[in-house]
Design goal:
about 350 residues, alpha/beta, two-stranded antiparallel sheet, globular, glycolysis, lyase, fructose-bisphosphate aldolase activity, fructose-bisphosphate aldolase, EC 4.1.2.13
């Protein structure tokens, strides 16, 4: 099939991903990153434990009320639960769309001040074909840009934007909705207005490249960071300012044809992520997009700690996941009451975070 043949499906899938009151569960951490989380609760990093953890997530009763799709790591896409049922089938049975992380990680971009580029384009078409056959219907490619002296450089931004656009077009040729994720990291001491300025530049560059590559914008989703100050900034912004600048940034750089934005949490705590998303959705705006969530740590953190690797805690951990999913569902409609859902509150920031 060609892109034109897939286009109706791409549009329908993208719309379903940002259905009212729903967002994405990002559980696409690499084997190493997932292992670090398991080791934090005393579990060995092996396939059985990774399977058990992800089975806990996917079998949470009622999760489908708040979650439209789940981003998987390749191992998980081809994995089955302890009952022998494939995870893709478990998700589809709930009406949760399976997705797949397709980038192969960041590497140093030679000639820059410690900046990176994202790898994986050379094998992407073949892998996407395989992933579609397995049941994936959308994909994610994360590149990361930092704010520092002279950063992001023109070179790093051009490489990131070009590769995101090439990735998006290749995915669409294979029937997968591309999530476009040009993450601007929160590392640093820059203020929130600096973040906004950089994000505007990033968005305009990325979507110019998407236009050059013939990407069908109606069959894509944007996954940015919210517009927050650097984690070491002394001038902390309040949620209303963060919301205002986040919406302004989108209205200045995101085409109206994109159906929705699924924000990443990027090291922001569970509760703060929900509060910021709620404030964003309380604002009047010109932009027509759905503004919702695609959280990993901000959905999984309290759930993982509640489970603690103990079978007796399974249901309590699932209740914790469902509570945070409900909080973010409400926030995606501007209806969340801060503190109304439980959270083990802490900073989830990890310097130079990788998946």
């Amino acid at each position: 099939m060609s892109l034109s043949q897939y286009e109706p499906e791409l549009r329908a899938t993208a719309a379903a991903m940002v259905a009212d009151g729903k967002g994405l569960l990002a559980c696409d951490e690499s084997t190493g990153t997932c292992g670090k989380r398991l080791e934090s609760i005393g579990l060995e990093n092996n396939e059985e434990n990774r399977m058990t953890w992800r089975n806990l997530l996917f079998t949470t009763e009622g999760l489908e009320l708040y979650v439209s799709g789940a981003i998987l790591f390749e191992e998980t896409l081809f994995q089955s639960g302890p009952d022998g049922v494939a995870f893709v089938d478990k998700l589809n049975a709930k009406g949760i769309i399976p997705g797949i992380k397709v980038d192969t990680g960041l590497k140093p971009l030679v000639g820059t001040n410690g900046e990176n580029w994202c790898t994986g384009l050379d094998t992407l078409f073949e892998r996407c074909t395989k992933y579609y056959e397995r049941g994936a219907r959308f994909a994610k490619w994360r590149t990361a840009l930092k704010i520092d002296e002279g950063c992001p450089s023109n070179l790093a931004l051009d490489v990131a934007a070009t590769d995101l656009a090439r990735y998006a077009r290749i995915c669409q040729e294979c029937g997968l909705v591309p999530i476009i994720e040009p993450e601007v990291l929160i590392d640093g001491d820059h203020d929130v207005r600096t973040t906004a300025k950089v994000q505007e530049r990033v968005l305009s560059t990325v979507y110019n490249k998407c236009e050059e590559n013939g990407v069908v914008l109606e069959g894509t989703i944007l996954k940015p960071a919210m517009t927050v100050p650097g984690v070491d900034c002394k001038d902390k912004s309040d949620p209303t300012e963060i919301a205002r600048l986040t919406v302004r940034t989108l209205e200045r750089g995101l085409p109206a044809a994109v159906p929705g934005v699924t924000f990443l949490s990027g090291g922001i705590s569970e509760e703060d992520s929900s509060i910021y998303l709620n404030e964003i959705n309380k604002l009047d705006r010109i932009g027509p997009w759905k503004l919702t969530f695609s959280f990993s740590r901000a959905l999984q953190s309290s759930c993982l700690k509640t489970w603690n690797g103990q079978a007796d805690n399974y249901e309590q951990a699932q209740a914790q996941l469902k509570a945070r999913a409900q909080a973010n569902s409400e926030a995606s409609k501007g209806e969340y009451t801060p503190g109304s859902q439980p959270s083990i509150e802490e900073s989830l920031f990890v310097k130079n975070y990788v998946y």
